[in-house]
């Protein structure tokens, strides 16, 4: 769990720096930063999505995962969590929720998260998660500058999600071969692409409710 702890600290420190910048940036600069993040997110999602070698299973994973997430209503849970945090710390609003959820998805739905969690979960040194921590440090500065304090609070679901993956990897890591990891990365890419679409205000995609697709792809790839 060392990698996840360091990652969490990096996000907190980076967000704090970003908030200092945020308070000094005119709105038009904040908007252009926000659009730049959206464009990069779309590019990142497409590049990750191309890692699949079975488009049908990828589509099935997204659809089935989305249905499962809609049934559980993960998005509502995350919104409730962000609202409760906002009330507790006397901060809130749509910007807070958007910042927290956007940062969480960007920090957690990616190949470095999956590979890093597996590496540490199998007893190796957390080199990938430490590398990810450095990347997330700089990303959190930019995100917090554009989206505000919600980015800092994304460390809570980040710690739970990434730490949970590390523990699962310790238990089931031997079953995660290169093919499954690539497919998980591809699914993560589609989720990030959806996030980019949200950031650019093209359409409201319920990315959070599609998170179970990361589990569905493992099950489908294990049997097909």
- The pLDDT mean sits at 87
Percentage of residues assigned to helices: over 70%
Span between N and C termini? 32 Å
SSE arrangement, N to C: HHHHHHHHHHH
Which ranges are low-confidence, i.e. pLDDT below 50, for 5 or more consecutive residues? none
Counting helices, strands and paired strands, the structural category is mainly alpha
Task: Evaluate the radius of gyration.
Answer: 17 Å
Short description:
With 224 residues, the chain is an all-alpha fold.
Chart the SSEs and their pairings:
Layout: H1 2-22, H2 27-49, H3 55-72, H4 74-88, H5 94-108, H6 111-121, H7 127-147, H8 150-153, H9 155-172, H10 178-199, H11 213-223
Description of the molecule:
This protein has 224 residues and is mainly α. The protein has one domain. The chain contains 11 helices and no strands. The radius of gyration is 17 Å and the shape is globular. The two termini are 32 Å apart.
Overview features:
224 residues, mainly alpha, globular, 11 helices
